[in-house]
Amino acid sequence: MQAFKVNLKKTLAFLIASSVYMTCYPVFAETATDIQDMHHEQTSLDWPGLYYGFMPCTDCKGIKTTLALNKNNTYVLSAEYVGKSIREFVEKGKFDWSDKKDTIILTPRKGDAKPQQYLVSEDKLVKLDENGNPFTGDLVERYTLRRKDITATPPSHSSH
Q1: 83-101 b/e with 16+ CB inside 10 Å = b?
Q2: DSSP letters of 129-142?
Q3: Helix (H, G, I), strand (E, B) or coil at 151
Q4: Helix-, strand-, coil-residue percentages of the chain, each rounded to 5
Q5: Distance CA 82, CA 54 (A)
Q6: Angle at the Cα of 51 (from 50 to 53), degrees rounded to 5?
Q7: pLDDT tens track of the chain, all 160 residues?
Q8: Helices (H), the chain
Q9: What DSSP character marks residue 44?
Q10: Which of 44, 60, 124, 129 could make an SS bond with 84 (beta carbons 3.0 to 4.6 A apart)?
């Protein structure tokens, strides 16, 4: 029992000394370039979630759009052409981060749809043209999908 107490005291003394040493002299494994390379939208924003918007349409009232981005870099995009069809078009696929590090490229599973690009920023996605440039003009704001918090509980509708 005496030996156990001595070993316990030595172990505790070692842990306390180690804690004090690590507090005073922290060790950082990353280099400056590692930190700089990692500081972009993929790691600095909470980007997974559901995004909603009403995109412009040339031959309908607008495109009711929902885009779900998953942490495993898959997505589900649904679009309803309001005033033209009641059918909802659903596209599934994977997305990758572009070299710009603040843009994602959606690549559909089926080869008939073209890849799409979105600029990622705080709680919103901005659709880019096929060359990766922002749209311009009067409807520029309609190319934005806004993130909705799906973890919030809906308000109670009980009657008292």
Answers
A1: eeeeeeeebebebebbeee
A2: -TTS-B--STTGGG
A3: coil
A4: 25, 35, 40
A5: 9
A6: 145
A7: 665 554 545 544 444 444 433 444 343 333 333 434 444 556 667 899 999 999 999 999 999 999 999 999 999 999 999 999 889 999 999 999 999 889 999 999 987 778 999 999 989 999 999 999 999 999 999 999 999 875 544 455 555 4
A8: 2-24, 32-38, 41-44
A9: H
A10: 60
**Backbone angles phi and psi of 33, in degrees to 5:** -70, -35
Phi, psi of 106 (to 5 degrees): -85, 125
Spatial neighbors of 55 by CB under 8 A, at least 6 apart, are 62, 63, 65, 79, 127, 142, 143
Joined together, the tokens standing for residue 98 give 């572009």
- In residues, how long is the chain? 160
